[in-house]
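assembly run, all chains below
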Amino acid sequence: MTRKYRRMILIVTALAVLAIAATLVLTALKDTIVFFHTPSEVQAQTVKPGQRIRLGGLVEEGSVKRPGGATVEFKITDLEASLPVTFTGILPDLFREGQGVVAEGRMNASGTFVADTVLAKHDETYMPREVAEKLKKKGWWQPEKKIPGAK
Amino acid sequence: MIAEIGHYSLLLALVFALFQIVASLTGAARRDAALIRSGDAAAQTQFVFVLISFGALVYAFATSDFSVQNVYMNSHTLKPLLYKITGVWGNHEGSMLLWVLILSIFGAMVATFGNSLRGEFRARVVAVQGLVGLAFLAFIVITSNPFLRLDPAPFEGRGLNPILQDPALAIHPPLLYAGYVGLSMAFSFAVAALLEGRVDAVWARWVRPWTLAAWMFLTVGIAMGSWWAYYELGWGGWWFWDPVENASLMPWLAATALLHSAIVVEKRDALKIWTVLLAVLAFSLSLIGTFLVRSGVLTSVHAFAVDPERGVFILGILFTFIGGSLALFAWRAPMLKAGGLFAPISREGGLIVNNLLLVTACATVFVGTLYPLGLEVVTGQKISVGAPFFNATFGPLIIPLLILVPFGPFLAWKRGDLAAVAQRLLAALAIALAAGAVAFAVKYGGPTLAPFGIALGVWLIAGALSEVAFRCKAFRAPLRTTLERAWKLPRSAWGTALAHAGLGVAVIGIVAVSSWRVENISLMKPGSSIDVAGYQVTFQGTRPVTGPNYRDTEGSFAIARDGALLMTLTSAKRRYIGASSMTTSEAAIHGFWSGDLYIVLGDKMPVGGYTVRAYFNPLARLIWIGAVIMFFGGAISLFDRRYRVGAPRRARFAAASRKAAA
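ok done. output:
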């Protein structure tokens, strides 16, 4: 085997692995990524039912209900629109009314968001960055002060 | 006063770092031994001043000196002393100071123990190390000074984020940093080699132990973080493909690749250009990790500061070092001569495949981690890339690598015989298939791929052991000969076998937890019981418990199996006292041989009772045991005779480098 031939084998193998990796990445990026939306975007019908999304906003005051079992119902609001959410499981320790939250799941046919994951970050002052930015854009952002509607 | 000493020492360290760069570089250029020596001394002095500075901050935290803003923001008098001290690196400023401290330790170590290196080369390494130190010292002094005073001093601090008050988390950052920063050594050696335009076996013999040590620290550091997430966050998960986790996984993958390619440089004088590039990339990934975690572009427990000035500064450091070193690489790499020839099927070939798959897998993690950031910057669209992405990309690349691992150590250098290797691995294959069959029989009805996963883990362990067995002539020679050969086997061979076996152990744990975890979430009232994987869990009620800086609502659970009471476990909702009064969950975890019983007390329900989340995580502990075994594999390898600092070798090195220099 000549040096050239050996180098050829090496380069071809490397390119093959890279091509496989690129294909995997592109396919996965098409299928597995989850878009972030706010309740008003969902209500504007930009999201298809059944599509997996992240819904972010504040937990609406007085909306948390526990109908029984480990199921929790609450509403996520971006102060413009609000959406009912159901979740079965244990909420994160920092889940509170008026606090920022991100839920991951799907819209069902009746307009309820069925979450399988609820995230509230482990910090008292935390609000999902996405929510904070939306609030800033809408001019509702008041650092160090309470958010209107959220006690 | 102490804080001012700390601040002043930091400035002095900065000055010495500057001197270290100038003296070492000029010394190397002029071949002036005295100047080189003074550069070494500057590196040592820089370390001493950073140490004083760090000590001053530790003192401020230990004595709860709230006139220091950093202490006020992150400490509290009620906190136990241990957490006061670990609070030093539980915040942005302090953790950067720890980063620089470890960096300066490494710099001082080359300066002190690098006698066997050629003077000019050592000087260049010390200079590059000083350059990295200078950049980060400047970063601390300009944007993140931990010694800022408050006037008037508050009476009480705001307290450390309670979930960071934990023994595992107390040592997780120092370990991880030792790993990140340890890669700076490989980087400095690579840049110094590029400056000189030469890479040889002596170079590789120096780079390998440093990379190995960094890799070991990264391994346990990552494992520690994952163990913490497992028991503290109360989700029962151990890896979330969180960008911050990925930030530590990427340097680990690159370091693993570097570790293997440096073997080829050392033994066969080949793959030099690639290894130098990998050394640069590994440290670049460490820097990117630091940037991701510290700049506040990600929201997470790790992102202490959301301060654009800091982000821009770190980004500047990032571009300077990565851009600079890659430009240097492009300019100088062609000067490095290609080395020995080898056939595609050979130990070298095997190590290339290892590198190819590791680096590609690392690249997919890179894309998955940075794509959302890039997309947001370009289009403003927000997405999350989670576990499904990584399972679909990282998985298919890493599984072939795992299958190939046992072949590597059996292959001969230059030209290997695949048929002979396969024959030697027949026993391992048989054991692996048997284990897979057992897994299938025991857990009939689980995911189809799970038994294959178990077989893969066992294949790694059995393959690693058969290599050692083969070299000791086990079962083919009298026991005495075998033991003698085992004793004489180089430690690096034992280290390799152990590390590969540890990987197998971790794979078994990962497969078992991901495939056969049992989850039961229910509403429990005192007296009610649920079944979790054959264990009857009975809720006995709650009681209040008061700790030093928290109050618990502690729920107790009686655990029984087949009607026989085994034990009582407690899980608590913990509410911390202090300005940031927040709640955390303390999970009840009991490790059985077959796996972990994991119970979390949830919220109190208005209808009465509590939500309780119970898991059975089969073989979960193998994940971390595997990581610890890998760590010890690395440690044994590190103490191989070849790397030991000893007089005879030092003399040999000096002779060899004199010859090389001539």
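The CA atoms of residues 104 and 117 of chain A lie 5 Å apart.

The interface with chain B takes residues 1, 3, 6, 9-10, 13-14, 17-18, 20-21, 24-25, 27-29, 31-36, 54, 66, 68-70, 88-91, 93-94, 104, 121-124, 126, 128-130 of chain A (CB under 8 Å).

not gonna interpret more than that til we talk
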